[in-house]
Amino acid sequence: MPAAPDDVKAPPADAITSPTGLASKVLQAGSGTEKPGPSDTVTVHYSGWTTDGKQFDSSVDRGKTISFGLDQVIKGWTEGLQLMVTGEKRRFWIPGNLAYGENPRPGAPKGMLVFDVELFDIKKAPEPPPVPEDVAAPPADAVKTSSGLASKVLSPGNGSRHPKATDQVEVHYSGWTTDGELFDSSVVRGESIVFPLNRVISGWTEGVQLMVGGEKRRFWIPAELAYGKNPPPGAPAGMLVFDVELLDIL
Question: Positions of the region Disordered (predicted)?
């Protein structure tokens, strides 16, 4: 078990503090030159302590490195790992608001956390797809249904079968708000998604049934067929634009 750092209680004078309050100090210089981006996957060894010196987690103890996407961890890790190069070892003092907070979920440590992190590898995330030129509104050659759903075929399919609402489908997709903000993308994650067509927003249920296997289509989905104008927390509001590629009908 790695011993608690001597400076576990607070960042020392030679630590560098960012505008967010994240403090860090290089323990071992790296051999690489490239730093990870906010969506890249990294492989690391780490140990973590609370400021009273109690170790709460350590991949070193488990004897196995861990890999994860930088957009899937606490904010202090997302920010901090982007400062590092491969081969580097760095100590972080992560304030509670960049970790699990002062009232964390059960099992998570609270307050400022201290991590020693060694970066072994960086796997670059796929480049995000370009924002469609017609993201603001459906173009003149888009086809509209009676529900208000608009769509345009971007590349024809190689199949003849259309999915039914009760089918499961496998797709790749990217979604934008009409101001061009990418809010979700299986392409960026590098992993297609499978789901039943009757368990998604109405615009998807209707729209994907228009497609055949191998087809790629752009949809302009009005708010009433998406998440509405006052959506639940985390969901985008208003009209949404999706590029969808139908990979398989299951």
Answer: 1-21
Cα 122 → chain centroid: 16
Catalytic residue among 16, 56, 61, 193: 56
Cα dist. 162→100, 126, 177 in Å?
A: 46, 29, 27
Tokens of 241: 């634009």
Q: Is 74 a catalytic residue?
A: yes
Q: Is residue 115 annotated as a catalytic residue, yes or no?
A: yes
Q: Is 134 among the catalytic positions?
A: no
- Among 100, 173, 219, 227, the active-site one is 100
Q: Convert the pLDDT of each residue in 95-152 to its tens digit.
A: 999 999 999 889 899 999 999 999 999 999 888 899 999 999 999 999 999 999 999 9
**Which CATH architecture describes the domain 16-123?**
Roll (3.10)
Residues 6 or more apart in contact with residue 150 via CB below 8 angstroms: 138, 142, 143, 144, 219, 220
Q: Where in the chain is the domain with CATH 3.10.50.40?
A: 16-123, 143-249
How far is Cα 250 from Cα 195, in angstroms, rounded to an integer?
10
- Catalytic annotation on 57? yes
Q: Which residues pair with 234 in a beta bridge?
A: none
- Selected from 3.55.50.30, 3.40.50.2000, 2.60.40.10, 3.10.50.40, the CATH number assigned to the domain covering 143-249 reads 3.10.50.40
- For residue range 179-225, list pLDDT tens digits in order: 999 999 999 888 999 999 999 999 999 999 999 999 999 999 999 99
pTM for this model (two decimals): 0.66
Catalytic pick from 40, 74, 184, 195?
74
